[in-house]
Each structure stands twice: as C-alpha cells, then as structure tokens.
Amino acid sequence: MATLGSFSLLIALALAAYNLVAGAAALWLIASGRPARVSPERLADTARRAGIAGFVAVTAAAFALVWSVFTNDFSIAYIAEHSNIALPGAYKFAALWSGQEGSLLLWAWLLAAFGFVMRLRHKTDVTLYAYASAILAAVQVFFLLVLNFNAPPFSLLTGAIPQDGNGLNPLLQYPEMVIHPPMLYLGYVGFTVPFAFALGALMMRYPGEKWIKITRVWTLVTWMFLTVGIFLGMHWAYAVLGWGGYWGWDPVENASFMPWLTGTAFLHSVMMQERRGMMKSWNMWLIFSTFLLTILGTMLTRGGLVSSVHAFAQSTIGSWFMVFMGIVLAVCIFTYILNHKHLKTEHHLESLVSRESSFLFNNLVLLTACFVILWGTLYPILSEYVEGSKVTVGAPFYNRVAVPIGLFLLFLTGVGPLLPWRSTSFKAIKRNFVMPTVALWVTVIVCLVCGARPWSDGQFQSGAFYAIVGLALCAAVLVAILSEFSRGASVIAKQTHRNIFAGAWLLTRRNTRRYGGYIVHIGVVISIVGLCGAAFNQNIEHELGLNDRMGIGPYTLTCTGFTQDSNANYDSDYAMLDVSYHGKPAFQLAPEKRVYLVSGQPQTMVAVHSVLLWDLYVVYEGSNPDTGQPIIKAYLNPLVGWIWAGLVIMVMGTLIALVPSLKPGAAATKPSGTPAIQGGQA
Amino acid sequence: MIALKLKSTFISATRPLQAIALAAAVYLSMGATDAASRYNDLSHRLMCVCGCAQLAGECNHVGCQDSTRELAELRTDIAANLSDRQIFDAFTAKYGATVLAAPPARGFDLIAWIAPFAVFLAAALGTILLIRRWGGLRVGKSGALAAEGSDEAALDPAERERRERIRRETGSDDGGF
User: Fold this and answer.
1) Which B positions 28-87 lie with beta carbon below 8 A of chain A?
2) How far is CA A197 from CA A115, A129, A206, A363, B48, in A?
3) A512 contacts in B (CB within 8 Å)?
4) Structurally, how many domains does chain B consist of?
5) B176 inside domain
6) Could you read off the pLDDT of B2-38 as tens digits, one per residue?
7) Are residues B44 and B23 in the same domain?
C-alpha cells in the first residue's frame, strides 16, 4: 500500500502540473489568438481531464493511507506514529488528519474533490472555468510538491517494524475530532474555489458579475463548513480540555477565525457588487486575503512559527508555505495592477446612512477584527525581533481589544437591515429604531433586576459590563430582525389571506437569500447571547471523599462512589455523583479520568448537564497525591447551550439562503382578488 | 433667549463627548482592588509556565507544580500589598516576559495596544472621507440624506424608501447572502 500511495502522489503531481501548464498555454493561445498546431480548445480540454484524473490519483493515495491504518501497517512511519491496534475504527479513520502528513493529504484530496466537481460543471462557462481550473491546479501542484518531497505520508520506518503503534493522541480521541478537522478543512480548502474564480475573472477581464453568481454557492457552502468547523472545535475544547472554556485565543484558533472574518466580509460586500456594481476591487482583495489567510493558518498550524497547543512539531514546512504565500501574493498584485481598470465601480455611495454604508462599516469592523487577531497572533514574533524577547499575547489582550470591536459589529448587524439601499430620511430612521431601542433598554433593566451587575463589592467588573452591553445589543438586533420579518410577513399574509406564520414562510421562500441571511444573523445573535454568559461563570474545586458534598449555584453534588473500568485502549476512573437541584434529587453525573495504555497519557472526560439557562460542568481531576482524595471541580457556566443552538440556526439559515427563491408566479397564493399592496401597510 | 438656545445646543452637542469621556473613564478604571478580586483578576493575567499555554488561574493539571507555585507567590504578593505593576515586574524578573498573558502597556509593547485602535480609527476616517468624496454626506432640503445622479433621486426620500420597502417585502430578489 505504501508503494501504491507514493506512486499515486507522484502521478497526481504530474497530472496537476500538466493541468496547470497545458491549461495556461491553451488560455494564452486563446487570449493572444496565435495560430498553433494543436487546437487550444482541445488542449484546454486535455488539461481539464488531467485535473479529473488527478482526483482519482489523490483519492488512491488517501485510500492507501486509510487502508494502511486499518490494516495496522506499522512499517509506514506515519501509521506507527498515529495509530495502534486497539484504536477504535472511527479514530483510525481520524488518524488520516491527526498528523502533519495526513492532514496535508486530506487538504490535497479535498482540493482535488472540489476541482473534480468544478471541472465536471465546466459547461456553465468554459473559458472562466478553464482559468479557474488552471489556478486550482497551481495550488494543487504546491500541495503535492510538499507531500512528495517534504512531508511524505508513506515514508517507511528504518530498522525493525514495531508490533504496535504509538496510538492517537488522547486529546483527539473524541467524537468531534472525527468531524471537526474535515469541516474546518472543507472551509479552508473551499475558499480556494472562489479565489480561483476571482483571480481567473480578473485575468480574463470577465465582463459583468456572473462569476460572483457562479461562486456564490461555493462561497456560502465553504463559509458554512468553516463556521461548523470552528464551532465544533470550540465544543471539542469545551468537552475535552476540561478547563470550562471553549475559546482560548490560541494562535491556531485565531488562524481559523481570520479567514472566517474576511470570508464573512466578502459575503456581505459582494452583495454591493451584485446589486450596484460597487466595490469590485475591494471584493477581489477580500477573496484574495481570505485565501492567503487560509494558507497562513495552515502555515501557523504546521510550521511552528508561533507556539500553540495545536501546532505540530517544528519543521521546514513553514518555509514552503511562506514561499507559496509570497508567490500567490505576487501573482495577485501583478494581475491586479495589470487589470484593475476593469474593476471600475459603476456607482458611488450616495449616503452615509444607507444599506451600502452599513455594509462598508460592517466590512471595516470585520477587517479591523481580523487585523487585531492577526496582530495579536504575530506580535510575539515582532516583539522578539525588535526587543529580543518573546511576549505572550493571550486572552486579556483580546478581551480588551477585540470584544469592544465585536460589540460594534453586533450593533451594525442590527442597524444594517433597518436601512434601505441608497439613502433614507431621519424620520424613517427614527421609526425603524424605536422598537430595537426599547428592547435594548428593557434588557439592560431586566439584567440589572436579575442581579447581573457590572460591579461587585463596589468594584467595576469589565466582563459583566461587556456581557450586559452584549445582551442588550442582542435583544435590539433580534427585535430589529424579527420586526423586518413581521412587517414583510404581515404584508404577504394580507395579500394571500394566510396567517402570519404562513406569510413568514412564503416571504422566506420568495427571497431565500435575504431571509436566509436574516436567519443566519439570528443564529449569530443567539450564539453571542451564549458567549455573554461566560462573564457570569462560577466554579468550585473540592477534594470529595465518599458521601462528601459540594454546592454550586442551585446544585449540590454528593459523591456516592468511585469505580474503575478498562478496555484494550484505556483504563478509566469514574467518580459517581448524585446531583440535587434546590435540595431535590435530580440526576447523576460520572466524570471520568482515562489513562491510555499505549501512550500512558491521561485524559479528562468531562460530565456535562446542559439546560437552557446553564451547564453544570464537572471534571474529575484525579487524586491529590498528598491525601489520596479525589478532586472534583465543578463549573456553572450560564447560557453555553445557546452557543451551539446558534450554530444550528446559522446552518439552517445558510441552507435556506442556498435554496433558489420561489418565482412570484410559482407562489401558491390563494386567489383573493386583493388589490396591490399599499405603501402605508409596509 | 439666544443664550438659552446656545446653552441647550452646547449641551446637546457635548452630550456624546460626555458619554465618550464617561466610557473612557470606566474603561480606564477597570481593575479590582480588594484581595479576592485582585487575586482572581491577576491570576487571569498571568500564564502558567509549565507549557500548557493556559492562564495560571485556569491551569487544570492536577498537581501542576508551576501554577501552584505561581498562585502561591501571587497570594503572597497581594498580601504584601504590592501594586499590580510591582507584582508583574517580580513575575517577569523570575519567569521572563512570557509569564504575562498580555504585553505590558509601556515601552515598545505599548504599540501592541495602540495599533488596533489606530488602525480602526484610520480605517473609519478613511471610509468617512471616501463617502464624503463620493458626495454621500450632502443633506437635502427636506432634511433627508440625499441621493444624487439617478432617476429615483428626484423622488422624495420617503417615497423612494416606501417603494423600496414594497419591492423588498413582496418578494423580488433584492440581495441577501
């Protein structure tokens, strides 16, 4: 299998190189109109077919690696390093992306798969697809060069073949880990497609905005996968690392967040290009930046450039990525300088208070947030270079700098939908903002009445202050969005004699992009409500002997026993806890501590009881080496469940936005003879 | 009468500035002073030096010698009534600059704190100037923020907005993701 895998990767490299060279040559011949012995169209088609064949070759390599994991072929260094005989099947599959070489192979395979689908759909626009195909092939050549010459996944061990492997890192032996990395990679790799189309469109001076329409589905799906990947990573950190949190501002977390921010900015500002022919250069650079940030993220993860709990060991791979980034940036700048006149805007912004300007400010804030995170991530390198000593840029920095920016973005999320395109009147602004403003102040009052105060013992609490501001803004944004829904739904309901809910459903179906987008915004707001809860987290740690008790919030935990279990993969210790709620028996929890047999590494398995209001999060930390008593740490984390619920709503909204809108004629309206809508009803 | 009007104009004009000044004062006064909240605050501004990349106050390794020692030193320093800066200086001298969870706001590291806000302000200013250059800040006679140079621009903004809303709410595909 190692031989098959290695040869497949070499063949894939040759095919990708042919795809790039032949594709580029064909496009040059077509653009220059020079006569050639071979028809450029046929040459371009052979390049396209080489790309399709490349997918088969990379799939064969990925299959060879997965097969080797499942057959415990420890002659391959990667398998010996990342798997063992007793590893459960799902985690053996996850071994494909648990190490550097495997995850690069996953990247190459996903890129080949995206390219496969794209090349099959080439008839949509043959020339534009040919450009995009050649650009995609160039990216693929880079990854296959790395896989063949710097990080080969099929390297054989020298010397004796071990009887068993080292096993998968215990931190990765968790269900989310089977899903989180592929989702994140789908997001990372997926942005290559809109990047390829954007660069291709610029190279060929593509007329109109059709390329944006072609890539819209790619971009949305990619954004959705990246969002899901980030949230699954958060959930994994919450459930596995046992520190009660879900986001630590680790450089690798930041690396995934940065392209999400620029991708989100692109999704918003591209609407201005579609609708009004504005911000063409801006959008081009947003998608270029998003792609470059995905490469930067991979470089940070793989290259050991910054210290991170996620980063793989130091390797020379970072320099490969740096050179690649430099080449990509140079190509982007060169192409832009050559063809930027093609991107001349068709309209200018007409008013500071309009939908367009809200998008502009939304972009400004998203990019500032991206800059803050990039700055914080790379500042230790700058500091070391200038001052000779490294510094840490951790949570306190981001909480002070990024949180206010995030709140401003939340404010814009509410304001944007209330503003019409082009311009508006102060009277209309006043009318639209009454209800959200009322909601904002009501929430502040409710928070204060419920005991959430930005001060404690006479001291100002910045976390609580931001949380209350955040919750108030969430309420305002939610009311703003829902009032948009209800206004439209009531018009439709009157028109078609339906109830308001049926009206809302028809409204959404008639304009899935707009209302799907609003649902995504609702999801974001719900998640932010959950994030605000972190300001009011409580925790308590106790040595807990048999029948000992500890209390947190309305819960009392009573230790009823300890037990042990073992299987071929790990030994585990459980603490059995009876939990009562306001003194009444409620449920049981069994936090666990595992020790993996092959690696000898310990691992925490957190017990979580989640309700709408909070999570009771219990960690069995092990035994105190001095007293022998087990140590239990309990957290009461308010509103955490809202974060995950928000993700579900975001995914739903994105899926709705992907569905084509119902044509007005196709709407199943009840015959009513209702006159045309009157303006005053709106 | 005029003086009264001027006074009320002045008050309404300076109200946003007062709000900003209040917010800045609140922001700058962040930080707790009593022992328990200081311990909680400072333990979340120091890193555990064991290499776990967690804050000292959040390190969850049972028997972690480093975070236990750091937290004990922190308690002693707080009991000795040292200022935040003295505590951070003592920790930096002992463990190196990486023990601080964020760069100190002095010397070269001040740039770490200033740069994000400077970039934001510069970008916001640039955006406003750009919109201004495009003519987006002109105020029409009716008190509306005017649109120019198009057919619909001649319409009353309220009328244009009404039309826009009707188009939007009755279903034509007018944007969105």
Assistant:
1) 29-34, 37, 44-45, 47, 52-55, 58-60, 62-63
2) 12, 7, 10, 21, 46
3) 176
4) 3
5) no
6) 444 545 554 555 554 555 555 544 444 444 457 777 8
7) no
Q: What is the mean pLDDT of residues A575-582?
A: 91
CA distance A343 to A346: 9
A657 near B CB under 8 A: yes
Find the closest chain B residue to A392 by CA distance. B98
- My answer on whether B47 and B14 are in the same domain is no
In angstroms, the separation between the Cα of residue A30 and the nearest Cα of chain B is 34
Given an 8 Å threshold on Cβ–Cβ distance, is B163 in contact with A267?
no
Across the A/B interface, how many CB contacts are shorter than 8 Å?
248
Cβ-count burial of A31 within 10 angstroms (0-12 exposed, 13-18 middle, 19+ buried)?
Answer: middle
B67 with B46, same domain: the answer is yes
Question: Token pair for residue A449?
Answer: 């009445």
Give the closest-approach CA distance of A431 to chain B in angstroms: 12
Range A541-551 average pLDDT: 87
Does B175 fall in a domain?
no
Domain limits at A595?
538-641
Q: Is A243 a member of any domain?
A: no
Q: Do residues B162 and B119 share a domain?
A: yes
Is the pLDDT at B145 greater than 50? The verdict is no
Side chain identity, residue A294:
T
User: Is residue B148 situated within a structural domain?
Assistant: yes
Query: ipTM score here?
Result: 0.77
How far is it between the farthest Cα atoms of chain A? 89
**Do the Cβ atoms of B135 and A383 come within 8 Å?**
no
A409 pLDDT more than 80: yes
Contact check, Cβ <8 Å, A459/B37: yes
Average pLDDT for chain A: 86
What is the percent of chain A with per-residue pLDDT over 70, rounded to a whole number? 92
> Which one of B20, B34, B130, B177 would you mutate to disrupt binding with A, by most A Cβ within 10 Å of its Cβ?
B177
Q: Which residues in chain A touch residue B116, judged by CB atoms under 8 angstroms apart?
A: 368, 371-372, 375, 401, 405
DSSP letter, residue B9: H
- Grade residue A555 by pLDDT with cuts at 50, 70 and 90: very high
Chain A hits for B119, CB-CB cut-off 8 Å, are 368, 371
Q: Does residue A675 surpass a pLDDT of 50?
A: no
Nearest by Cα to B135 from A72, A356, A251, A622 = A356
Residue at A591 is within a domain: yes
- Parent domain of B49: 35-102
**Token pair belonging to A302:** 């793989």
Q: In the predicted model, what is the mean pLDDT of chain B?
A: 69
pLDDT band at A149 (very low <50, low <70, confident <90, very high): very high
Q: Is A628 helix (H, G, I), strand (E, B) or coil?
A: coil
